[in-house]
Known about the structure:
By secondary structure, chain A is an alpha+beta fold. Chain A has helices spanning 41-49, 91-101, 106-119, 135-147, 165-182, 193-199, 217-222, 227-232, 329-335, and strands at 3-12, 15-25, 30-34, 56-61, 64-65, 76-79, 153-157, 185-190, 202-207, 210-215, 237-244, 247-250, 253-256, 268-273, 278-281, 291-304, 307-314, 323-327, 342-347, 351-354. Chain A contains nine helices and 20 strands. In chain A, the strands form four sheets. In chain A, strands 6-7-8-3-9-10 form a six-stranded mixed beta sheet, sandwiched between helices. In chain A, strands 13-12-11-14-20 form a five-stranded antiparallel beta sheet. Chain A has a five-stranded antiparallel beta sheet with strand order 15-19-16-17-18. In chain A, strand 4 (56-61) and strand 5 (64-65) form a beta hairpin. In chain A, helix 2 packs across helix 3 (106-119) and helix 2 runs parallel beside helix 4. Chain B folds into two domains: 26-121 and 250-300, Periplasmic binding protein-like II (D-Maltodextrin-Binding Protein, domain 2, 3-Layer(aba) Sandwich); 123-249 and 323-356, Periplasmic binding protein-like II (D-Maltodextrin-Binding Protein, domain 2, 3-Layer(aba) Sandwich). Chain B has 15 helices and eleven strands. Chain B has helices at 4-20, 24-27, 43-61, 74-83, 95-103, 160-174, 185-198, 206-214, 225-233, 257-263, 266-277, 279-287, 295-300, 335-343, 348-358; strands at residues 32-38, 65-71, 89-91, 120-130, 151-154, 199-203, 220-224, 239-241, 245-255, 291-292, 325-327. In chain B, strands 1, 2, 3, 4, 5, 6, 7, 8, 9, 10 and 11 form an eleven-stranded mixed beta sheet that branches. Chain B is globular. Chain C has 13 helices and no strands. At the B-C interface, helix 1, strand 2, helix 4 and helix 8 of B face helix 3, helix 6, helix 10, helix 12 and helix 13 of C.
Amino acid sequence: MSIEIQGVSKSYGTHEVLKHVSLTVESGELFVLLGASGSGKSTLLRLIAGLLEPDSGRVILHGRDVTVLPPQQRGTGFVFQNYSLFRHMTVRQNIAFGLSIRRTNRTEQNRRVDELLQLIDLVEMGDRMPSQLSGGQQQRVALARALAYEPSVLLLDEPFGALDVKIRAQLRQSLVGIQRRLGVTTILVTHDQEEAFDIADRIGIIEQGELLELGTPDALYRSPQRLFTASFLGTANLLDARRSGESVVVNDVLLPMPSDGQYLNGHALKLLFRPEEVSLMRPDNTTSRYGLIGAGVVQAVSFAQPMIRVQISLTGEHANTPIQALLTASEVSELNLREGDQVVVGLRSYHLLPI
Amino acid sequence: MIRYSHILSLLTFLLVVSAFAPIQAQDAPAPVNLTLAGYAVPREAYGDIIPLFQQYWQEQTGQQVIVLESYQASGAQSRAVAGGFEADIVALSIEPDVTRLVDAGLISEDWKSETPYDGFVTRSLVVLAVRPGNPLGITGWGGLANENIQVITPDPATSGGAQWNILAAYGAARHGAAEGFSADDTGAEAFLRAVAANIEVLDRDGRESFLTFERGIGDVAITYENEVLGGQLVGGQYDLIIPQSTILIENPVAVVDTYVDLHGTREVAEAFVQFLFAADAQRAFANHGFRPVNPTVGAEYGLVDEGTPGAVTPNTTITFAPVDDLFTIEEFGGWREARAAFFGDEGLFTRIIAEVQGQ
Amino acid sequence: MREITPRSPIAILLIVIVIGYAAILFIAPLVAVVQGAFAGGLEPILNTFRDPSVVHAFQVTLVLSGAAVAINAILGLTTAWVLTRHRFRGRKLFDTLVDIPFVFSPVIAGYAMIVLFGRDGWLAPPLVPIVFALPGILLAKVFVSLPFVVREVQPVLQTIAPEQEEAAATIGAGSFTTFRRVILPEIRTALLYGVVLTFARAIGEFGAVAVVSGNIEGYTETATSYVYRALNDRSTVGAYSVSVTLCLLSIGILVLMSSLRRRLNEQER
Lengths: 355, 359, 269
């Protein structure tokens, strides 16, 4: 176990920022804390680094209880959204800062800085001042600076937040590469789910100071256990459902119980299916390959590159819950879908959630 | 490469120097320290007197005296001593500045009885100074009221000494010494009003005011005999006019009882004050233009009878002329009354100046 | 290369006004003082500096101004730090109060010190005399020159994001190392400016010092007090030669400062 957070709480006055959060991040893992702004994700990260003190609970790094230690003694590497390079130091001096504090000898410092410059692909830039670098370059230097003294864990607070979209994607990949190569246990905080899905080994969803759910990106997307997670990650179609024997009742239709649905009879449930899990058919040409949940009317067809988004309103009790579907262009043209067309909605797969 | 550390070391250096700075008062082998708080004008005279006293005291007691000297405007000096400036002796320009210290409980009520001449160590006169050769033919107070005459006098609101000037002018006019004005309060007030209208510059204190005149501003300065004589000694080019009627200025000196008891310096302080009345000190004052209070010394400068020679040689270029009609502050019932009547918020001169400046 | 553009009459008028203004305010007095000092040749000037009370006045001035600089450098930095890094009740008021020495007449400040530390004062010192002694002069100099370091350093500190300090902390730097290696290099030009201005102000202070020092010759008399006394004593040469020395000192400090600044800037390049 590399990072262990046990029942950590933090309040500012009456405002509870973190509510008894526990979390374990495995050695070498790249863990992403995903949450909206104000969810408490940065606070949690700062607690781990020692920049904040928890009101209660413990922080354990590599088996060492660091809860009361100042940041200097925790040996974490921290990367800030705004880079926070030391403006009066060259790139090399910035990277070497942690080493020079630790009184590493010069030769070793230089060797290590060279190595890191190579790692972040800025070999030519060592003698530049931070002000002479682009944002992306500065953030790479900040990363190298945090890695130079071989931190026990690497903590990144929205590290790509201030960069433009293209640079962001590039930098993400190089971060993942570096993290994999060094195997350093990493927590990255972001509000950008695309970023989280792109790089995370596991994601933790944090909302209003609570760590709602943990899991691999795929598991969280496909079969979230919490309604918030379901709707927070991507687009979710959610319909009221209940269990009846070995079936699920939704929109007066019986569907086979999905494999992950271990819920009690009569329990109020939500049926979750993603837009890309929806299959549309003409009423005169249906197939029983998919779970059919009823008929509907096409409300809108729009282009959502590279797919086509179709919005359907079901007939019956769910008329007020429009269904989102993502279809390929060829599917749409095959069906020749237009607004107002009658369709039958089928599901390739679906999941159940407790309410 | 200059780094901030160099600045730090400079600062440290300065701090260290400050610790070892040769501050005389702490450093000198000083069996006894005496602090003299004087008003600004008699500084040179004290410069002559102090070495004489040091020698005298050494001979009498074998003890060395270090005199720390401070000179500033009389009122400021008096306020400083009242505020905690622990001077052993005060030598001020006007009696009320001593009275302030009596009121503050620093000087005993009977200070005047402790010296031979009622607490006054020097005298002077309010006089007029004019340009060389007296081109405007000013012979007395009356000339100050003429039109197109520029008069220089210090501001009585800030300078104690300046109050002498106004009282002298008023008193002289009341004695009939201002030609063209009746010899009563009405005439004196009218005269003061006319003079006030001619005032060109009101400086902060007597010395500054006279320096203004020396720099060529104004036709006539109301000033002090010692100021004019002292200025002439160092080459000042102006003529002294002693009006037929004027006020006698008396400058007090006193031991500050509270502080001498605190310092254990009463004996030497009292000896110093007594020494100021002895012939040599009186001669030193006279040599700088002050009228001596000691009549024996006065005689050497043309006042009354012959004196005996001593360590200080009388400066024969200085003679003090007699004044026909000399009055004192008692003319106005003493300082307290005079100040209220002339310089208080509703005082005559306060009102006149407000009128004149309001025009 | 920039070309000199033909000037409009208004521009010429403005230039003439500015130069005339400078000439009247700075150059003419300077020339007069220098001329006054050398009016009697070199010998009277040398005599002035042979006067032990003049030498002592300079010592008092320099040493106490240096001490005032040291105190205000440390307190000023701390104040600037507190004002930029901490939020507390009354901070705005405190921030405003820092400027008081700029708007307060030094003479009044001096009287206030006498009320506080003088005989029967609220804070009358039991053992060491403050007013009418050297500590009082130091205090007066510290007071009048207090805002410079704060006001020079504060805006620069504001540009340093707190994350810089946090970054240094996570990297492992203790607060002293962080200050020395992260904060100080950022503020050193400003600090230097502040220190120089503090020193210049402390050297030149007259009003407050005149009130609190008692002007005891050879003890509490400062160079500026000497100038005032010498002028009143008709010792023009003495007054002017000390004035010229003070001028040269100030100019020297200015030159030193700009050369230091240049070197610091080059270093940063």
